[in-house]
Specification:
The protein has 98 residues and is mainly alpha-helical. The protein is built from four helices and three strands; from the N terminus they run E-H-H-E-E-H-H. Strand 2 and strand 3 form a beta hairpin.
């Protein structure tokens, strides 16, 4: 399920990252923290992004500003790819161009 939650401290213990890193991600708008019974949690759907960000931060030594810039570039690239697919679909209506 996409809405299942994992407690931030449990996730951090399992993945050997600092809870303050998750706070930094939230402060930069890269993750949304939800609260369940007063405990900060992440949704399971956010975990692939958190793992990607933690690799950038811990393994590649990219600072939070760099991670934010990369995030926005990847989002823009995804938007452009969707737009290209949509345009190709529209072009196919006028003949078998591609």
């Amino acid at each position: 399920m996409q809405n299942e939650l994992i407690v931030v401290s449990d996730y951090c213990d399992k993945c050997h990252i600092e809870p303050s890193f998750i706070d930094l991600l939230q402060e930069n708008g890269l993750v949304d923290i939800l609260f369940d019974e007063g405990r900060p949690c992440l949704t399971f759907s956010q975990l692939p992004d958190v793992e990607r960000y933690s690799r950038m931060y811990y393994d590649l030594s990219i600072n939070m500003e760099g991670i934010d810039a990369i995030h926005h570039l990847l989002e823009r690239m995804d938007e452009m790819q969707r737009e290209i697919r949509d345009l190709r679909t529209r072009l196919r209506m006028y003949g078998d161009v591609f």
